Amino acid sequence: MADFTFAELTPTAFLRRSADVYAGRDAVVDGDLRLTYRELYDRCRALTGVLAGLGVDPGDRVAVLATNSHVLLEMHHAVPMRGAVLVPLNIRLSPEELSYILDHSGATLLVLSEEFAEVGARVAAEVGVPVLQAGPGSDYERLLADAEPAEVPCTDERGLLGINYTSGTTGRPKGVMTHHRGAYLQSLSLLVHSRMDQRTSYLWTVPMFHCNGWCLTWGVTAIGGLHVCLRKIDAEHIWALLREEGVTHFSAAPTVLTMVADAEGAAGPPLEHRVAVQTGGSPPSPTLLARMDRLGMDVTHLYGLTETFGPIGINEWQSQWDALDADEQAALRARQGVGNVIAEPLRVVDEHGADVPRDGATPGEIVARGNDVMLGYYRDDDATAAVTLDGWFRTGDLAVMHADGYLEITDRAKDVIITGGENVASVEVERVIDSHPDVVESAVVGAPDERWGEIPVAFVTVRAGSTVTADEIAAHVRAHLAGFKVPKQIHFTEIPKTSTGKIQKQALRQTVHESARSAG
Amino acid sequence: MADFTFAELTPTAFLRRSADVYAGRDAVVDGDLRLTYRELYDRCRALTGVLAGLGVDPGDRVAVLATNSHVLLEMHHAVPMRGAVLVPLNIRLSPEELSYILDHSGATLLVLSEEFAEVGARVAAEVGVPVLQAGPGSDYERLLADAEPAEVPCTDERGLLGINYTSGTTGRPKGVMTHHRGAYLQSLSLLVHSRMDQRTSYLWTVPMFHCNGWCLTWGVTAIGGLHVCLRKIDAEHIWALLREEGVTHFSAAPTVLTMVADAEGAAGPPLEHRVAVQTGGSPPSPTLLARMDRLGMDVTHLYGLTETFGPIGINEWQSQWDALDADEQAALRARQGVGNVIAEPLRVVDEHGADVPRDGATPGEIVARGNDVMLGYYRDDDATAAVTLDGWFRTGDLAVMHADGYLEITDRAKDVIITGGENVASVEVERVIDSHPDVVESAVVGAPDERWGEIPVAFVTVRAGSTVTADEIAAHVRAHLAGFKVPKQIHFTEIPKTSTGKIQKQALRQTVHESARSAG
């Protein structure tokens, strides 16, 4: 075999190419800052030198706590270009959770965008991790100006690219290990399905720290598109950018789409061209789809997890659906769909690992395997083993398989609530509630919610004579966990149990579903 | 590393997925025959059983002599699904050339579309290779109807997928070994750059036997597009299909584009939507680009070789070119461009392997490496070594590198003529001419030609007293080689030589260039 016939698949190749092919084209707009592809590449190359100067060696973990900014985008390229491992932190987490991840990942550096200067410094000091502060006039910019590149080529495409922490049933965040090959292929897959091109203007509504922005930090770069940064979800600002930056694509949970549709900006002049929107986390409702359509936006429903590099599944439109009425179309589009073009086929299996019939009725669990599935959980072989079934990855999502091969989620096997696109493990909330001195026990379930998809609801049994209030319980949770994990309703009650003493979560879920229905 | 995190990259995965996702959608139209994706997949699965029944084991070579038909498309999927190696034959070759390839590849089976029943049977008998004849009521259809699948999964993505024979400087066709990984990635690359989707209707103007139709036999399948077969290049028929099948994309050498533009069909009603056209082999002229534009066709100039899975390079449009006038745009689009999204950067190097300056003037040779470069030449390590330079593949194309990183071919280092998109090695034509009893020596060079890009021109020195005519020399060549290799002009003359007796090809080229200019 000739030695000219191979190159490692790594997403760092994309920026290098675009710096050459699209040198003078705008790569990033972040407020007043605009960078061309050549400038972005030069900064990222210099950043590899900054990292090296701060002692970051290949294989070291570099954590980043940053908004959707040029900083987080640059880290997505520069950290792997240094041969190091990117650990993007969820900015909504509590200091306690951030500390845990910094410690667990063994990060040797924490990079901060200006919004997190204070909390980042505090957490880093606690864990004993050095900090690199970004922002105008910051160390980040000062070091960048003088640094010589210290790139390290990828020598193993299946090697560790990043660790993305996600809520799990154990209640402690688990570190999803991604690899170069998967991110590379997933980037191409997103481009094929979204048909982005060099005229693409991509608005960063989805957090870059979530599955690395579904790999679009690299995908949009590969095609020479424009990254339009959005440091904060603000629906009016989104409308301003949609118009000013000629946005062609964005991605967001249905919750955010509802905010966009509700905003005053939606009443402005129509957009100049239709916008392609990718959504996931929960199915878009018929009402939302109809509203988005009227606003000039075409919504594609994607399905994925952090463990699958973001969207491993896609609800591919079928031309025979053109003839259906809006409600029928919406029902079909609510399905999570099929594996994407680079994925192995998604399956729905019973507890023995056998495929369920394609009857749209028999429940099973979605399992996945292939190049866009993680390497495993970082430093947690038990957790990896727990999600492994005969060489397949168990997603924890319960679904049915329809006759046309499109799967549809009906429930989640794992005790996880998805609220506004964020995962909440019931058990981690329960553990914090239970740590309150007045609490005997608690159970947390998801209740359907029009705005957030689901909200966490707590059932709490308190000690005799306790006068603790719901607000006090909520404040206790907020002191330890991210705000989105705080139960939106807290019921003081006895908790139903089976004869063996196991909490009957299903009964509680039924209660909250019924009360949501009667309220709706 | 968990075992759910990897799958071999093989283009056979695409048909399997599309059979599921686009089951009922039309996959192929070939005259009166229409196949859905499910039907195409079922036929290809059955074909693996037919191949097995005929003794084709994994690793065996299966040759195909077929027009752009469902047969050749099916073989592109079924042969690798059987774990065997596809050897698509150029239908324009002479029986002598076909025999050589059948023999050299060690093919264990030759599959024929109906057009080649006679010549195929004759050649196969000569080499002693069994034949499978396709066509209505044929063995192919009869066996297919009863066969049980005998698929063999790909266990090495870098393993041999096919052997595509191409003219080389040695004068004997060389077998370019392609691999699964390269074809998979190149397919995705073509989709990203062409922005095909499931509504794509792809007209097969480019031969599927040429670099496996630039990997689009698999690429169009991956996206669930329609393969519109075209068994013969006929410009009026092309126009009929453009209209009847709602063609959105096709690929062809400039020669074919000129035929399309010249056809009566071009004067018909305008097409309903713009058509994306990919061209390569020689640069499209400004006149041609303007004509295509008026016909509703957007031309992209690609660059590649059989050794690079077809188009490794692309002339990517730059938005700053929008403002230029048509002549300036055409001059820029005549450049071969940059590496595609999955390619390593194309380089232009001097004889020591160092990059030439980006000055648009210093000549060098284009070199390539990466996942879309061949494994090497089949059973010809010397030829592979001859095109290897420090781990890079020498294309034999001489070019300059412009300041913007776009390369432009100025000449060919190898003595190869490209006529109507087909490669002709001068030496193989010279060898045949020299075998004529009246000939002393000959030299063949390419002359510029508006229709064919280049045409072969022969300079021949005959023995004293010979009365051989140009027509007789041409007939002699035609008896041994493909028709497109027959010199279009034959000059009886002394051949200029250096003091050491080496033929001065460059002087001959200058002669034909000057005469083409004065004729133009």
Oligomer: homodimer
Global geometry of chain A: globular
Q: Helices and strands of chain A: which structural class?
A: alpha/beta
CATH class of the domain at 12-193 in chain A: Alpha Beta
Number of strands of chain A: 26
What is the radius of gyration of chain A computed over CA atoms, rounded to a whole number of angstroms?
Answer: 23 Å
| Helix residue percentage of chain A | 25-40%
CATH topology of the domain at 12-193 in chain A: Rossmann fold
Number of helices of chain A: 17
* Proportion of residues in extended strands of chain A: 15-25%
Fold and architecture overview:
The structure is a homodimer of 520-residue chains. Chain A has 17 helices and 26 strands. Among the domains of chain A are: 182 residues, Rossmann fold, CATH 3.40.50; 104 residues, ANL, C-terminal domain (GMP Synthetase, Chain A, domain 3), CATH 3.30.300. Chain A has 520 residues and is an alpha/beta fold. Chain A has a nine-stranded mixed beta sheet with strand order 2-1-10-9-11-12-13-14-15, with helices on both faces. Chains A and B meet through helix 1, helix 7 and strand 15 of A and helix 1, helix 7 and strand 15 of B.
